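Lecture 7 notes: from sequence to structure.

We start with a single chain of 843 residues. Read the sequence below before looking at the structure.
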Amino acid sequence: MQPPLHLLLLGETLSHSDLQSFLVPLFQKPQWATIQVSSMGEALDYLYEASFDGILIDLTIPYAPDLEAIAHLCRTFPSVATITLIGADQDLGLQAIQQGAQDYLFKDATSYEVLERSLYCAIERVRYQGRSRSLDTPKFVEGRDLANRKRAEIALHHSGHIYDALIQPLPDLILRMSGDGKYLDFFPTDTFQVLGSPDVVGKSIFDGSLPYELAVQRMQYIQQALETGELQVYEQTLEIDEIVHTEEVRITVCDDHEVLIIVRDITDLKQTEAALYQLNQELEARVKQRTGALQESEERFRQIFEQSPLGIAISDLNGCISRLNASLSAMLECPASELLDQSIYDLLQSPQQDDIPQLQQILEHTLTIVSFERQPITKTGRKLWVNVTSALIFNAFGRPSSILHLIEDISDRKQTEEKLQQVNERLTLTNAELYRATRMKDEFLAVMSHELRTPLNAILGMSEGLLEGFLGELNDRQKHSISVIERSGKHLLDLINDILDLSKIEAGKLEIQLAPASVKSLCENSLAFVKQQAFKKQIQLTVDITESLPNIIVDERRIRQAIINLLSNAVKFTPDSGSVILEVRPLQQAAQLWLQFAVIDTGIGIAPEDVKQLFTPFVQVDSSLNRQYEGTGLGLALVRRLVELHQGKVEATSTLGKGSCFTICLPYTVQSSASTSKSLIEELPLASIQRIGQEFQASGEAIAPLKFQPSSTVTTLSTTRIPSILLAEDNPANVDTLSCYLESHSFQVKVAKNGREAIALAQQQAPDLILMDIQMPDIDGLEAIRILRAEPQFAAIPIIALTALAMVGDRERCLAAGANDYLAKPIPLKALVETIQQFLSAF
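Now the structure, written as tokens:
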């Protein structure tokens, strides 16, 4: 095993693991004994103390030796092969060779294999030059004997073996040539087979071993090397086996007539250089592109920074302002020069306010962006409201470097918010007043309903009883007078109900009950209500309806109420012997199917300027004191509200002196088959039931109660005992009316004037049924019902609630308290008796 070659590595002092990969094997492979130094002085110390075969100098380090130091090294230690590592500056490597270095390598494009080959060649080249100098120098010194020559020959022979051992593994081609171009020695390798056989020794370079152009070029460099004594390096291109190779040729002088030529295949190196050049071009283009993009971005930022209406400032992490725009300077009414180097926090600090906690968080890096509002004072003393957004700016290493502050003047917005808050406060007060007024109106309507219905209950009840003859038979004149009283009472009741209905609609408390309704029956029942009125004026009533119309989903009672209102007006405003037509047609408008009810009359007509007032509540076209037609102005307003609750519309057209046409258009939601429909009918309030009953009674129609199904067998009660009824009522007129009527129908009546008496009488008498007025002194009817229901003996006794309130929710409150049924005053006495008989029969 050959001894290792001793090397010096002059470069950065790094651990072996931190060295570039191509240098690491110099410390690991057994053929190398490498020492690492960091300066030329340290390297010279080692060279003076020990023998080294080569030195590798890194010229890319910060304190690399200069060319003069390299020249001194090569002159002082000619037996040490010097190789330099360079960056991208090839001229530096060539200059080092001119100073005596054997070779140079590109540090970033070198592998260990290339380094190893270069070291072997350089070391052998230096040794070969040393042997040549020793052999060619005359040494006929007096006193030197043949023994010295013999030792020299032995040493030379030993050196030859070393030389062969070094040359064999090298991939370079080594030649020795004379000054006239003859091959003196030839050391071929597997890589270089250009010259064929070593038989070229003794032949001329022009004998065909090289292309003629390359032979001429080489001879020129040989002559230049012999003339100057300097190393000649050049490149040549040669095609071998149809592959173009690039070779580096180095020519160094052996003596005055001989040169040593080393040929190295640098094709891979050239390809690497080309790739590096291409990569460098791409990098330069990319850097140029990114530089342009960065410049463009910086320009955009500058424009945004300078032209932004927002105040912008950049500060260091302590808040010291380093840059600000004109908007911030104008906002704070202070020159920019005075704001620079000031603390942004001091500028934004409001009087008598603590430090800004959000900024503390951003300084501690717990937040990267914060937003807050402050109220600073400008240099002129003006108070501002500003919204501040502060965000950390990070450097290329991801560390916070500065803070960006965006300051928006929100003084106008704050003033608007303050005004809006004041408006909202006023609106809240107004709404409270409106709510109080609405509640007072509801309470007033409830009181008025009670106060009006209570006497009406006595008037209508007594009229009904007198007409039935429960106080004895009346003559025709008496019956006529009582009928007038009854009609007037019912008319007054209609007005009260219209006012209540309109109030409920305006308050959004009137709910419609949708159910399938026959269009034909709806029209016939509506016409029946005005037949008597039309008959008296000899007005012809006609219905024109498309046959086989499917059922429509509506609140039948409310729509019938609207149609009757239109028909009543038509009959009222049509002169004698005129005509009124009810026309019903389906209409298709876009994707919506409608059902149109048109009431057409030949009446007095309406002036165009008055048509727009028709549907306004409490407004009449003829409001003079001597007006010909009576009315309150509620009817058409109520019609429009009822139709709008069905998502429909009402229109009117009229010609003065010729007549009018009022139309109701309803969304035609149909029910084609009663057998497949789901019942949507819900129990209506009793006040509504009573009005419908009154309407049909006036037209001679019979109508059955909705809650029970009466039959002829229900009228027969047990004759063994007279049923006892407890009547709780505080109004004397109603007590007289109800007591007389019930006693005439074989009921025993006990009267209580308030809830407390009702409870006591019930406990004493144990009545079969209780009629409980709701609004009574001391204990009201609802509380009395609850107390009675709490006792087991009254759990099954029927209790019918009687009230003159008839407001939304009254029925539900009565049933929730424990009543079995609810009747609104004025109560039709006949219907009351039938209801009592039904409950007594059921219980």
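The chain has a mean pLDDT of 80. Keep this in mind for problem set 3.
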